Amino acid sequence: xxxxxxxxxxxxxxxxxxxxxxxxxxxxxxxxxxxxxxxxxxxxxxxxxxxxxxxxxxxxxxxxxxxxxxxxxxxxxxxxxxxxxxxxxxxxxxxxxxxxxxxxxxxxxxxxxxxxxxxxxxxxxxxxxxxxxxxxxxxxxxxxxxxxxxxxxxxxxxxxxxxxxxxxxxxxxxxxxxxxxxxxxxxxxxxxxxxxxxxxxxxxxxxxxxxxxxxxxxxxxxxxxxxxxxxxxxxxxxxxxxxxxxxxxxxxxxxxxxxxxxxxxxxxxxxxxxxxxxxxxxxxxxxxxxxxxxxxxxxxxxxxxxxxxxxxxxxxxxxxxxxxxxxxxxxxxxxxxxxxxxxxxxxxxxxxxxxxxxxxxxxxxxxxxxxxxxxxxxxxxxxxxxxxxxxxxxxxxxxxxxxxxxxxxxxxxxxxxxxxxxxxxxxxxxxxxxxxxxxxxxxxxxxxxxxxxxxxxxxxxxxxxxxxxxxxxxxxxxxxxxxxxxxxxxxxxxxxxxxxxxxxxxxxxxxxxxxxxxxxxxxxxxxxxxxxxxxxxxxxxxxxxxxxxxxxxxxxxxxxxxxxxxxxxxxxxxxxxxxxxxxxxxxxxxxxxxxxxxxxxxxxxxxxxxxxxxxxxxxxxxxxxxxxxxxxxxxxxxxxxxxxxxxxxxxxxxxxxxxxxxxxxxxxxxxxxxxxxxxxxxxxxxxxxxxxxxxxxxxxxxxxxxxxxxxxxxxxxxxxxxxxxxxxxxxxxxxxxxxxxxxxxxxxxxxxxxxxxxxxxxxxxxxxxxxxxxxxxxxxxxxxxxxxxxxxxxxxxxxxxxxxxxxxxxxxxxxxxxxxxxxxxxxxxxxxxxxxxxxxxxxxxxxxxxxxxxxxxxxxxxxxxxxxxxxxxxxxxxxxxxxxxxx
Length: 887
Hints:
Number of strands: 52
Number of domains: 5
Radius of gyration: 32 Å
Helix content: 10-25%
Shape: globular
Strand content: 25-35%
Largest sheet: 19 strands, parallel
């Protein structure tokens, strides 16, 4: 009995104690909640810091948002408490699988980065894996990405990913995934949207759900990398993408502490950086791209050295717009020299900016211009033409802000993604666009009188000088604010280790003066001794140090692209031939027969008019570059003739004309296309960003890649004749147009050649006759749409081909004697996807095979779907669809 009573008493005491503890805990929780709520309202910056510490250590436990995207934390808390999310869009789920051995390398690299404070990339960082999405398995390589450790926080690690085996994902072969907050959540898309109006390129950017080896990473931002797929999606021709290399800034460290001090030091300067390219291996394999890279490098170095103005190097319209939109948003990060990316337009030979990584969570919100602290942007705006365009775009943005169209545009993009983001980042609010108005007012009122900032000295440098060599000379530029002593230069044979002297000892040691604070590097040139055996690969190494110190360092010298001091295109600075007569804003060519012994370049914006009965005979290397509208006014009895003096001539280029060109009753004979040391165009007759109407015109004996090439333009081709080409007849890239009537014949003498070949275009073809075509009469590619009716195709390789996401609608047509196939649909570039042909009322006779349809693509004839099969497209293009002169 005593035992029972004691147990009961103990239980009562325990219950009372437990209840007291519970009440105390509840009270503490209530107090904590109240204090946290008050902290959000009264001291939001402290609340943010606390949550950021938790995020960094544990991942996004509270699903919070960086402060840069909130109006205030009190509003964010309200959103968090009352949000009710309906209609959230579905998003793709990427399941990434990486073998244990490979993922272990990723773990080790992350630990190394966390210990160092930054992620330093190595050549062997990529590991193999695969992505599963829906019913597809895409082989990949991936590595960690990002400079700072915010890319490695919590569970949301950033990865750079490359597809393997020719595969693609969302039309991309190279892309990154990262925590959405590293790119400012929805604000990155809003920034890109504002740039679209001005045709400034940016990478594709979307949100995906990601799982890595069975562990959810949650919602991630997927961002396209700099590749030819980005260019094609942006309706640009394949070309090179370049940047100022920031490696030296990252590599520079304090001599005493060993800490990185590159930012703000001698190498935090675009003038003290090398120029490099994305996709260097692809460039090295292509003579055309290698030439373009040399031009891009020469242009950027010419700008950095002050030899070329911004308007001589960059696309003024797009650069001015990029700077204006970035400044409106307060995106200092986008205009920082080490974040600039440029595409060399192979037609204009000007560099176009590619916008990315605005980092609007860390933006300027006051009246200060982001240009004022960035020397490269200051140098760009020092050019009157760039500054004028910058002001024009700011004016346009201000007008659109006031009439509500700009806020509506930005909110429309935000509305597509905000609800989705809030499913995970529950405290995320709308981007506060109200600050844009004040910034626009302040920027428009500014006189733009910015000063260069000073450099900070440091002791241990990534390099002491820049060493580059040409065929017979060594180019040296001091890189640091101290004197440098060059002590030796040697050719090294990598395999054998053999060495040979590269500089005359009489020139050594060479004392280089210090680079002035805030000034460009100081340059020298020395004659270079040739290596003993020019047929063997040699590496050039330089030994240098600081005067008065007995240590030396060795540096490898790379081959140099010539620093350009003038535009690489033919300039309108030479007198025009005497048969050109200026009449106000028109240059009229007098009727008659004229010899053109040298290239003719007309001033921008001037109309060039050629009267009936005129014949122009061009020397072998004499081209005609028209920087404005072209008006060729021939008649049936008195055509205008463009012909060679001898066997052939380069051709004619009409570029960036504000008004429409007109060509009637003309003849273009024996063009071999435009090729110079810096410039290569595929067409004998070229129209770039120049709308044109051509009728009753003959293109004969074309010896280049295309007889007629139209790019980024609208056109009509009425009753034209193309007779005799080595390769293609008409090539349209990123165009809209119509071909009516006319004849294409004897196309493709070099073993390949299409009559009408369009990419990224919308085109109508009606009543045209195609005969004796080596390859394809109609070729529709790279997400094009063609409607063709009443066409006749006979004695062709393939009558009509649709490829790479394109649609061809063919009606009331006849096909006869196609040596390979009547209708074909297939994928050549996987990033575009399958193609389709819809044929009605089409007769096919005396043809090897009526259709060839690759599995996944479609061909229907009179609503009957044709059988598909597996097709080796690569083998197809190596045999029956030989490229000929096509690159």
